[in-house]
Amino acid sequence: MYQDGDFRVSRRQPHGERWVLVTAPLTTHLIHPADSADAAWWRHAVIYQIYPRSWSDASGDGIGDLPGITARLQHLKDLGVDAVWFSPFYTSPQADAGYDVADYRDIDHLFGSLADADAMVAKIHELGLKVIVDLVPNHTSDEHAWFKAALAAGPGSPERDRYMFRDGKGADGSEPPNDWNSVFGGPGWTRVTEADGSLGQWYLHLFDTKQPDLNWDNEEVRAEFEAILRFWLDRGIDGFRVDVAHGLVKEPGLPDYDAELHILDGEIKDGSPRPPMWDQDGVHEVYRAWRKVLDSYGQPDRILCAEAWVRPQERAVRYVRPDEMHQAFNFDFLQTQWRAADLREVIQSSLEAADSVGAPSTWVLSNHDVVRHASRLGLPVGERRPNGIGPDDPQPDRELGLRRARAATTLMLSLPGGAYLYQGEELGLPDSTDMPAKYRQDPTFIRTKGKEIGRDGCRVPIPWEKDAPSFGFGPGAETWLPQPEVYGEYAVDQQVGVEGSTLELYRTVLRLRHERQLGTGGLQEFEGLGDDVVALVNTGQGEDTLVVANLGAEPVALPEGAEVLVASGELTDDGQVPTDTTVWARLA
Ligand code: NOJ
């Protein structure tokens, strides 16, 4: 570990009209102590998200599938990740791309069969990787057997009690039970037609009409989900990513919430009253029970990862207390603006918050719900994160976005804890930002009548080969969302073995992260390289790694004796770190 003054840096500083070289000592302070070298796998794993519709298509119908995935798994081994998380592949009418599950124990025919899933899981394990599946407990599909039974059984029945049915307000019950909206836009309640043809009760859906919310006060619901956990654990999977983990339990009485509902854009403001549908204390009991189920499977650990859009961080880490989940996505990191001070602050506060409950922090920059970071970081700094980018919106600067994305990832993968990658980011893939409206499928776009562009732009099928139909995604030329022409340039076969390509950068960074054991390292902050720089030392389990991300306008010199291990972009002729570049270095 470094002491103040152990290292000195020479840098050019303005001095009147001229620039002069000054040498200054660097000071450091510890922001996170090292984990033990043999910490459980999930405390430092890099987990790659596959969105099954869009990774690889074997059947040729233009939609990805499990046999297609199995055929290309070597890509992940070569990339150097530790685990794969699959967005839902269960039986589903696909009203929300599979986050509307009709049968939690079967595979949708679009993707294959349970036998295909077993073969895929076996292959992943053979490669030495872990498998995480998506669990969607907040709501089912309206085509789930339970919901159909609830409609048939009528008001007051045990079948209805599994969901959030209520009578409407007003003399004839024609007004919704409260004022909640759907996250996807429009009302959060839908009125049903009863078996006798009359207009009847209303059911709550925080998302699409086709995604009725379950009632987590109902014991049968709790028991069913524990059984679903066991079903997949018995098939050998290593963990679950838990969808809308902060939404299961609602405030009793379902009080009005006089505001628009958001989950995916981080608009739950610090200090505002806690919304009655999010982050209720009662939800933690559910995860304590699940943890017991997972722990009963013994070693190596099977894990739970929370998708919980919760602020502030002190509330968010309650999901990863020792007897609850193992990880939670760090959406604060994803939402941080490209400013050194903001990044320093979020890195420090994330680690502090996670350390306060003994959990590892996690890091993430992209997923299937947000504009890819190669595009997001090509938008002006300081603006609100858009929910999709359409042809009529200001377009991101593709070159700048990629440069910053590479720097951001190189910074992220130097940090201790777990990290999540989203398919295609290893290619530097931008969002599709000029997709015509007729192709769009995200319910957000449909329910807001196009006011919100939504998430289709980050869900476009992956390019594997530049000169093949659908860029090698599948045997057919058509894909369920159209691939922009420019995707050919990003294809895997254009990048493998090409020095300086984004794919080779990811491979190098992941290899070094593993070799230098950065996932379990301690973290020190280096001061003295300037306000526009994020400078850290990951102490690993042995040799230290200096990490310098330069977000300022001027190149930054590395401390004397630093030997560069990897850089997200070219250095200046005299070996300095240019703007929007991250470097890892060994310190002599
Ligand atoms: C979060 C998922 O990531 C998103 O894709 C989905 O639309 C909602 N939850 C509803 O399940």
UniProtKB/TrEMBL annotation:
<dbReference type="InterPro" id="IPR006047">
    <property type="entry name" value="GH13_cat_dom"/>
</dbReference>
<dbReference type="InterPro" id="IPR045857">
    <property type="entry name" value="O16G_dom_2"/>
</dbReference>
<dbReference type="Pfam" id="PF00128">
    <property type="entry name" value="Alpha-amylase"/>
</dbReference>
<keyword id="KW-0325">Glycoprotein</keyword>
<comment type="similarity">
    <text>Belongs to the glycosyl hydrolase 13 family.</text>
</comment>
<dbReference type="GO" id="GO:0009313">
    <property type="term" value="P:oligosaccharide catabolic process"/>
</dbReference>
<feature type="domain" description="Glycosyl hydrolase family 13 catalytic">
    <location>
        <begin position="49"/>
        <end position="459"/>
    </location>
</feature>
<dbReference type="GO" id="GO:0004556">
    <property type="term" value="F:alpha-amylase activity"/>
</dbReference>
<dbReference type="InterPro" id="IPR022567">
    <property type="entry name" value="DUF3459"/>
</dbReference>
<keyword id="KW-0378">Hydrolase</keyword>
<dbReference type="InterPro" id="IPR017853">
    <property type="entry name" value="GH"/>
</dbReference>
<dbReference type="Pfam" id="PF11941">
    <property type="entry name" value="DUF3459"/>
</dbReference>
<protein>
    <submittedName>
        <fullName>Glycoside hydrolase family 13 protein</fullName>
    </submittedName>
</protein>
